[in-house]
Amino acid sequence: xxxxxxxxxxxxxxxxxxxxxxxxxxxRTLDIADLxxxxxxxxxxxxxxxxxxxxxxxxxxxLALLLGAAAxxxxxLLQTRLGVQPILAGIITMTGLYTINLLVMGGRSNLNMLxxxxxxxxxxxALGSLGTPLLAFLFAAGAGLLLTxxxxxxxxxxxxxxxxxxxxxAASSINPAVTTAVGLCLANAMTALxxxxxxxxxxxxDVSLGTGMVVIGLASLIIGEVVLGRGGxxxxxxxxxxxxxxxxxxxxxxxxxxxxxxYFKLVSAVIxxxxxxxxxxxxxxxxxxxxxxxxxxx
Length: 298
Fold this sequence. Notes:
This protein is an all-alpha fold. The protein is built from twelve helices and two strands. The chain has helices at 3-29, 37-53, 57-80, 86-104, 119-127, 131-150, 154-164, 166-171, 176-202, 213-228, 233-256, 264-297, and strands at residues 110-112, 204-206. Strands 1-2 form a two-stranded antiparallel sheet. Helix 1 (3-29) packs across helix 11 (233-256). The longest helix is centred in the C-terminal third of the chain and has 34 residues, at 264-297. It is globular, with a radius of gyration of 20 Å.
């Protein structure tokens, strides 16, 4: 793998790590499988693309954050006010976002920004070849640190408690509907920001850009947890960032190994399945090892 390919994989890993951070908040902290992620990622890319074409790339990032949070709020209201199951609520919002994303991009299924200035070209103009990786890292690290700080505040602790025991939180005069809404808004805002950054990074946005993003983000998070282990909030955020980078490096290695394009989806599926199933497989291996040791000692 060349240094150029490796640098590109790391840059994309930093961008995708925002999705892994979002899933750490929704899946690990709130214990909600939020399928809004796929639609929200594309929403962020669509907002970023249309604003960049109009000459406002930074405004595109801000708009992606706001609309991503709004999408998370819709999913939260479906769950907490209308009694829709979390998975179904995410599917409903994601389905509706497909049309909204088309509308945001002016009815077009894709939009290119090859001739437009964006935040990464500005970083390259200021810092040279290090501009892109440095900017991507700053977004990822900044989001991770802010999430870590937030989850240690009173509201953040309430969100963590909601994921641990919703009934106990309700009995403690904390409204779980509010904490759920805040958590999902923040998670989807980060997901939309990731999509917005990726659109400007690759200078292209497509209505199907977010397909499978939940699985990819979850796989990245689990890979990071396998490497760093599960622990406190800071370790969880670091695992999300590291896991996303490792995942993109694995994908880049598969590409440089001249894997047939027809098989690439299968390779990706195997990587994701291996990452997600690793904790269960490792637990079974440890169990059989302990049983063998007990038989030898007994």
